[in-house]
Amino acid sequence: MPDMAYDPRMNYDPARKLTDGDVQDLKPDGWYGDDGKLFREFEFGTYQQGVDFAMRVAAQAEERGHHPDLHIYFRKVRVNFFTHDAGGVTQADIDGARAVDTLLPAPDAQADQD
Q: Does any domain span residue 9?
């Protein structure tokens, strides 16, 4: 078997991994990535708004059973999707990114918060 960064006992399944082209075709607007990772950075008016958003993403991830990495910076939150046991981006990551986008306030509501 080729050199793998993953323990085969994890049910490593590279057949689920999408190609770079698939990721580019399927990713939602505003998201970046390839077969290695799918990510987006969200910016908020305050630190607390970013933390609140990260908490909503975490709650949604628990409900969906597919968890992104969350990085909170001052007024920014970066969301990274990557399916570890597939070794890249899968349809579950694309679906997760779309679901995260539903947590954003409407543009006019966000302008009111700024």
A: no
For residue 90, being part of any structural domain is answered with: yes
- Domain of 40? 20-102
> For residue range 36-76, what is the model confidence (pLDDT) as tens digits?
899 999 999 999 999 999 999 999 999 999 999 999 999 99
Helix-strand-coil split of the chain, %, nearest 5: 45, 20, 35
Number of domains, the chain: 1
pTM, full prediction:
0.81
Would 53 be classed as within a structural domain? yes
CB contact set of 48 (below 8 Å; sequence gap of 6+): none
**Could you tell me the CA-to-CA distances from 86 to 15, 36, 78 in Å, in that order?**
7, 10, 22
What burial class does residue 26 get, using C-beta atoms within 10 Å of its C-beta: 0-12 exposed, 13-18 middle, 19+ buried?
Answer: middle
| In the predicted structure, residue 106 carries a pLDDT above the cut 80 | no
Determine, yes or no, domain membership for 38.
yes
